[in-house]
Every structure is written in C-alpha cells, then in structure tokens.
Specification:
Two copies of one chain form a homodimer.
Chain A (H helix, E strand, L loop, with lengths): L10 E11 L4 E7 L9 E2 L1 E4 L6 H13 L5 E8 L10 E9 L2 H7 L7 E4 L10 H18 L11 E2 H12 L5 H11 L2 E8 L7 E6 L1 H9 L23 E2 L3
Parallel strand pairs in A: 1-6
Antiparallel strand pairs in A: 1-2, 1-4, 2-3, 2-7, 5-6, 5-11, 8-10, 9-10
Chain A binds a DNA duplex (27 and 27 nucleotides) through helix 5.
DNA sequence: ACAAAAGTGTTGTTTCTACACCCATGC
DNA sequence: GCATGGGTGTAGAAACAACACTTTTGT
C-alpha cells in the first residue's frame, strides 16, 4: 500500500513559546513574521514540520534557526487545532515551550531574523491564536514550577537566592517569606553555595549558588513545595504529560 | 493567498487510550484494526482528523463511533511524530486518553466494531507505537492521580471506600493503610456517604459514597495527597498541560 | 461461634507558616 | 554613621505515617 486513500492531509506547524527572565521580569521572545498573511506582525518562533523530522526535532531546528540556541529546556505542550486558526489553510499548531537563560541568549544571538524580547506583562498583539499558546504556557509553567524545580532553567549558571526568590514571586505575583523560602530550597540540596558574592545589587553582597546537577535531576521527579500551598493559583488545573525532556541539539 | 507553497501536508490521526476499572483490574479498550496494513491486529481506538473538526472533536467522534460513549473524561496527551511510525505514510499520532466507568460502557456498548477489554497487565501486541501511547498514559495517570482526584472518573456513581482504595492501590501497585486513606479522602469533602451499603463483597457491607460535584470541581485544581509521598513513583516525571476538560459530546 | 471484611482513634514525628533582628558594606 | 539589602532561628500549628482493635453479619 502506498498511502491511505480518501483522507485529508494537512500542514503541521511547530510554534515555540520561548521564555526568559532578566532578573526582574519574565520575557517572551517574538519575531516578525516573514511571509504573508500577517507578514511583519509579531509571532512566536514557528515553522512547518518537515517530512523527515519528528516534532521534537522540528522544535529544536526552529529554535536554533531563529535564535542560534541549542540544548535548551523544551517541552511539547499542546496541539491547537481549530479548523480556521490559520486563515490560509488548515494548519495544526503544535506548541512547544522553552525556558532559556536570557544572558546565554544574548551571547549566541542570531539576529538575522531579529527576534525581540517583550515583557510578558506588555505583549504586542500576536498573530492567529498565539496569545492562547502563551497563556497556556504560563498556566503550565505556574503549575509545574509549584511542584518541580523547573525555574532554574531560566537562571544563569551562578545565581543568588534573592534572584531565585524574585523569579518565583514574579511567576505567581505574590510575596514570599525569604526565611521560609531559603530553608525550603536549601533543604532539598539541589543548589550549593559558592565562596563568591554578587555585589551588583547590594553593598553586603549575596552569595552565588550553582545547581547540583545530580541532585537536580534526582529531585526533578519529586513533588516539591517551594510555593506556600495556598498560593498555588486556583486557575492552574491538573493535567500533564511527563516529558520533561532536555532536548539535545 | 490560497495556500502555503512548498510545504508538505500530512495525515493526522487521533488515538484514544480508553481506560476502565472493573473493581479489580485496570482495563484497556482495544479494537481490531479494520483496514490494511496490520488489519485485524489490536489497536487503540483511532481515526483520521477530518477537515472540519478540531482534535478534541475528532477524539469525541472517534470514541463515540467506536464505543457509543459520550460525555467522558478525556485529555489530549501527546503527539507522536516519528516519521516512520506508520509504515504506509507520514501520520502524526495525537494521543488522547479517556477514563470511563466500565459498567456504564457495558450498557451503551456499540459492538459493531467489537472492541474488547484487556487487563492492563496482560495486553496483546499492539500496532505501530500504540504501546508507547499506553505507557505514557499510565505514567501520566499515575502522576496526575497522585495530585488530583481524577480516578473517580473510573468509578460508578455509587462506590465504596474499599473500592476506591483498591483503585489507588492498583494504580501504584502498593498497599495503602485504610485508616489514613479514608481520613485523607473524607477530609477533602469531595464524597458523601449514603445510607445504603454494598453487601456484595462482605457480610457487614460497606457504605456507598457519591461524589459531591461542586466540591469535586473545586478540589480538582488543588494539590491533594492521597498517596503517601514516598510512594509517588519516581518514574513519574513532571510535565503537564492543564486541560482537564470534560469534553461535552 | 467464627470467619471475613468494614469501620474507627491515638500518638509521635515531620513539615509548615508566621514572625524580627543582626550583619556587612558602600556611601 | 547610616541606609540598603542579605542573612539567619524559633515556636506554635497542621499534616502525616504508623499502628490494632471492635463491629457486623452470613454461614
């Protein structure tokens, strides 16, 4: 048999929601769409799935082509499939999300396509249903980060406890008690303190920490509790796949 | 513009992992594939995405066509996309999973296609990558059920605490202390005791309970803890989307 | 009367939250 | 010397796990 008869074939796009954190705000990486329709409007990093690649491979390829980044934390999130989501023709939109160290990106920036960071709180209008993809990513991120140490993916190799705390406070838009927070994080053993201090933000300076890779991977499956239970946002439902894959370039 | 040029269109299939529980064992609903290749081999409930329907709609349609069931708990799980996963041609496999009350199904059984229940522990060989889909579903179910009261979807309207406990014990293959278990479950307020008892399994009889819909939906987002923390299987990673949608037929 | 399953309470341990002061430094 | 942000400890409350006996009733 050569093919299935009487069935409709359709395009499959991969759209990557690329999230960064600059120490203060969550940022989203957007690009100006290079072709019609909606040419020059802001869009997620996207492209069409090619015949010889899997979705994971396509997501990596697209991210690399548009940003120059590899070896980034990435997950398949959800398929958006409304028949008219793309006005041109039927396109199934597979959403992936990526968490990246924004400074790492600054180095490797491939600005041929001039992607741009926008503050998550003030995004421009996005094409098609891309805003839905972003919304779902944030929901997923809030859910997952409440249970697993995923946010470390957004930080540079060396980071401080105050930085980490701001990261969590920003995601849930809540204040967190620093004593309880540091006790919880340190008790897991996933980070270790360095001699060195970051003096850029205070006179006293804050100790740098680094991730313990082994402990990090071990803890990843465990259900943690960095966020006070009552603060886990009710909008966050359940659901999840398990696929925390560190895609390898 | 009429269509995107120079891009490859492909088939999209929807495959439903339909899970039931008969009071003792987890069961999987399989069907004998109706067309070549692999005709008459055991397969998940599947079909091709049609031009006018979304994936959610396709999943509902397929489940209904093959089993006669509507209004069933269903989630989009993951897209399987290896280029050669179907030997005939490129097909993107969208996996959904459904949890159903097996007795409800017995009533509404549409046996035109003769689907068959198999014990999860002794499945026949499945076509293509369907076993991977089942494996991922179980992983997801174990993860999610440890945090959210999702397993109630597998029980009939009226059920007993011993039944519920067997359901949890079976999923994780662990024994659970019935005193702690009942205290935890009851303290959430998601079920209420009826006068009536189930005397089919003991002389003394076990009280029937029913779900409190309001409380159930309210609790659904909360992170629960029916399973002792150390028993949450380490194989279960993180990841999830949030999409606990009760698809409406 | 006894076997089989259902139901229920207590205790010690751990984990959580709430909360306030001293420290180090650059200016 | 003082303002700024960084670091640390304790105590009361809540949640958890471990554990064993009594109840019901069909035979």
């Amino acid at each position: 048999m050569i093919e299935y008869s009487n069935q409709t074939r359709m395009l499959v796009s991969v759209d990557c929601v690329v999230i960064g954190f600059d120490g203060e705000d969550y940022k989203l990486l957007l690009i100006q769409r290079g072709f019609e329709p909606e040419k020059d409007k802001w869009s997620l990093m996207g492209g069409f799935l090619q015949p010889s690649e899997s979705l994971d491979e396509a997501a990596q390829r697209i991210l690399f082509e548009l940003t120059g980044l590899r070896n980034v934390y990435m997950e398949q999130l959800h398929a958006f499939s409304h028949p008219n989501r793309d006005p041109v023709e039927r396109v199934i939109g597979m959403t992936y999300f990526a968490l990246i160290d924004i400074k790492q990106y600054a180095k490797q920036l491939c600005d041929h396509f001039q992607p741009n960071w926008f503050k998550m709180k003030s995004l421009p209008a996005l094409i098609f249903d891309h805003q839905n993809m972003v919304d779902l990513t944030l929901k997923q991120l809030r859910y997952k980060a409440a249970l697993h140490p995923i946010l470390f993916e957004l930080l540079p190799k060396k980071f401080t406890l105050p930085q980490l705390q701001i990261l969590y406070e920003g995601l849930y838009d809540i204040p967190i008690d620093k004593r309880n927070f540091s006790r919880k994080v340190l008790s897991t053993g996933i980070i270790s303190r360095k001699q060195e201090k970051d003096k850029s933000k205070s006179k006293k300076g804050a100790y740098f920490y680094t991730l313990n890779q082994e402990s990090y991977h071990a803890q990843f499956q465990r259900v943690l509790n960095f966020i006070p239970k009552n603060e886990i946002p009710p909008s966050v439902e359940s659901d999840q796949k398990d696929r925390a894959v560190l895609l390898e370039g």
